[in-house]
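Dear Dr. H.,

I hope your travels went smoothly. While you were away I took the liberty of generating a structure for the chain from your last submission, since the lab meeting agenda had it listed for discussion. I wanted you to have the full record in hand beforehand rather than looking at slides cold. The sequence, exactly as received, is reproduced here:
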Amino acid sequence: MANHKNLLSKRHRNASFSQDEVREFVERLAASKRAKPIRTDNEFTRQLTATVRYPRIPQAAYSWSISEIVDARDAQMIGRFAAPARLAESFRTDDALAVAYDNRLAPQRMIGVEVVEGSGARAGAIAKEGDALFGPKGIALSDDTMSDIVGGIANHDLAIGVKLWTPRKDGSRVDVKMQAWPIEFVWWDSSARCLMTRVDSIPENDHWRWCNLPGDPYPLDTGCGSQMPIIHGDGRWVVFSKHELTPWRNEAALIPAALVWARHAFAARDWGKGSSSHGNAKVVGTLPEGVPLQATSDEGETGWSNEAAAFMELLQDIQSLDTPVGIMPANSNIDYLVNSSKAWEVWERLMLNAERAAARIYLGTDGILGAQGGAPGVDVQALFGVARTRVEGDLQCITRALRTGLIEPWTAINFGDSSQAPERRYQIPDVDSDAMMESISKRETSMWASITAAKANGMAGPELQDYANTLAENYDVSTPIVWVEPSPATPEASPAGDVGGAGTAGAPAV
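The corresponding predicted structure, in token form, is as follows:
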């Protein structure tokens, strides 16, 4: 119906309604009572059009000791993200952590998105406008921005987006674009009970404190900067996290990966040093007995005797491979000192252990390593199912944050309130449903094969149907109909005027 009737109005008090009309009215009445937060345009001031810029990102020295790595991990735990941001960047210099990190980001780039309309008379039109901003080719969210957001969620369990508002020239709409905010300028202010950030300059009409915090361990190199609170959904900021209380302490991969990186990096360094020792054999020569090593007074101050000096030149030629031939003095000897240590086995185990740990931390599985390294050698589909929880967790976090922090404010500013706001959803394949359908198909195929074999062996009639019922119950599929009981024949009616018709057979003639 285009115009819904209000069955409780006075003009309908004597009217009668069908069962369907009553059911529809009750359903609409129940839907109107559902709890739903409504955002209005009064919440968002026009000063949001001012651009907020982050401070200059300083050049960092990417050299870390164990103590510095631990300090950065502890800074992550207390909500100070300057050092952890540098540490997360250094992770990408390690092959194990870089591959795991890239695989964590890949699904978000590959899975499609759609804009689903809300409920209401104008919901369809609002969703169409929203598709141009938040859809697959939307201008409000770029692939580069979303990759940085997923990276922040993976490393810190926290990512920040800042919105840039642009009014159209005709004043009909205010368009929005979100950009990723560098987390290194963000910290948790326990006194204010909110996240704070440094900005390059304070937008007009935004009055916040200036300069660095007292005792700030990571001050700006300029000596002075401005600060702003980060409030999710206030019209300027979008906060992506999976936990309400201190999310940076819960699922942040940086916390367990910090010492995994140290273990993997230092093991690789030591293995490289050991490789140099194993690959460079030392040449040692032995002169005949009685041949002096030190020079005599007649030979000058050369240090070596003539025989020893000539033998040393021979050893150097052998070591450098420049001279393939040489003459050894009688009864002399040349030996190669080779490193026969088994220490490389320890380094190998450390490397494999760290690679498996890095994959499990970021992906929830070490299946990307294949059957080697102790990883399960199973079907790729099954491995994706293991890591699926991490992928879906990231995408659901993004969907929720974009709805409440970006799409609802945009709807409220442009359409008065957020009651008809659309939703941006990821088109995640339903692996469980596909697996269930495949299982049902296999079970039905096996059931029909058994029924066909029974018919070939002469089973028919009610017996065949009972057998099919039993198979359907065992295979947990729908019961097939393989036999239908024929209906009884209807007796023919007697011709009109026939005295000896049906029902009078055998009666005596009158």
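Two observations you may find useful: The chain is about 45% helix and 10% strand. The CA atoms of residues 155 and 219 lie 23 Å apart.

With kind regards,
E. W.
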